[in-house]
């Protein structure tokens, strides 16, 4: 009997969850290989942090890996040492979620019905070729893996380098391009000034890490608008999922959606209610709203409204927000608003010159290190990953028009250079952001992985008839 082979590149939450759903949906002859360059499967970058102060940005009650078992993560958490206290605090350290996903993976692999159907392969996929016979994945160490289908679950890439930086600075000792790299904040003098590019959630994580390691020096954070993520409301939000919609009919244009959202917030405020549930009620329909926008509306949203949406939609846990606010009140953390004009090394220090948004004047900040916390790189034409470069060069994939990821179909199949859809290459997670917009939170990725697993399983079953 033929054994269809499916390769999943990336074993973070997206890739691991997809592997589990494929195990449950594909007929027994199908084999799945889950590939990751990291030493531990299931964690991914987001949940690999070992800092207990790095908390989930979503309450644990909303983090189940299964939509039909919404309390699954909390139930697992309660079985762990100290789980009662963790569950009670709502926003738990991220490593617990990584351990949960890893537990699911190994638990399924031990089930008799799934025995020998899922392989875990450590390695870095550096290339992929396609012939009429199928796909060949090239891994480091000059290894090869044959597959009938492959899914990119590569997660987020490091931020794009600031265009105003000199090339020698980007390659020098004072710049850290990846805020999650082990050396991003290592080896700093505790009294030295640190410069952070970006003022979003990644910046907040970096500040918390600096405070945890006893940093006393000034911390400067710069972004074009200087917006901080808002805090979650005190306590756990009622219910596991928001199900209400903004009204009997969803607006179809960016202007109408923005007007309706602002009106809902004003009405809630007038009633003495919190604005957060208004935003949260959009969660079940955000993807549908995004997909209803024209290309012009999507581009307009990205230019003008995205920063405001991000800080209201992707919020900080109260404990984290308190620490950020305390650092600001003490003067240690200083926020700056403007656009970088030059980033260079001078007299052994990093000098960041920016044009202040409020009045257009030039200002300079000096520090011992610059850490890029500007958010993940999304323009795949500028991403240096060898697998990505090879796919684009071979014409097997193309960036989307908005430069948010790769161009895909509604079923997450990659489109090639000419726009033709692939029957063998798929993607899940952040790489599909242009098509779905909201595809970073666990509920969104969970829903996508289930749909993609259904689609791929249907293809596998058809080949076995």
Short description:
This protein has 14 helices and 16 strands. The protein has 465 residues and is an alpha/beta fold.
Structural description of this entry:
It is a single chain. The protein has helices at 13-25, 72-78, 83-89, 94-109, 167-170, 201-212, 254-270, 276-280, 286-292, 295-313, 318-330, 386-393, 433-436, 442-464, and strands at residues 5-9, 31-36, 118-122, 125-131, 134-139, 143-147, 149-152, 175-176, 194-197, 219-223, 333-346, 349-356, 362-367, 369-372, 413-415, 421-427. The protein has 14 helices and 16 strands. Helix 1 packs parallel to helix 4 (94-109), helix 1 (13-25) runs parallel beside helix 14 and helix 2 (72-78) crosses helix 3 (83-89). Mean pLDDT is 91; it is low at 236-246. The protein folds into three domains: 5-54 and 93-157 and 378-464, 3-Layer(bba) Sandwich (FAD/NAD(P)-binding domain); 167-230 and 316-372, FAD/NAD(P)-binding domain (3-Layer(bba) Sandwich), CATH 3.50.50.60; 254-313, no CATH class. The protein starts with a strand and ends with a helix. The protein is an alpha/beta fold. The chain is 33% helix and 20% strand. A seven-stranded mixed sheet has the order 8-14-9-10-11-12-13.
* CATH homologous superfamily heading of the largest domain: FAD/NAD(P)-binding domain
Distance between the termini: 11 Å
Low-pLDDT runs of 5+ residues are 236-246
Helix content, binned percent: 25-40%
| SSE pattern | EHEHHHEEEEEHEEHEHHHHHEEEEHEEHH
* CATH fold field value of the largest domain: FAD/NAD(P)-binding domain
Query: For the residues shown, what is the average pLDDT?
Result: 91
The CATH first-level class of the largest domain comes to Alpha Beta
Task: Please state the structural category.
Answer: alpha/beta
Rg for CA atoms: 23 Å
Outline? globular
Strand tally is 16
Order of adjacent strands in the largest pleated sheet: 8-14-9-10-11-12-13
The number of distinct helices, counting runs of at least 4 residues, comes to: 14
- Strand-residue proportion: 15-25%
Number of domains: 3
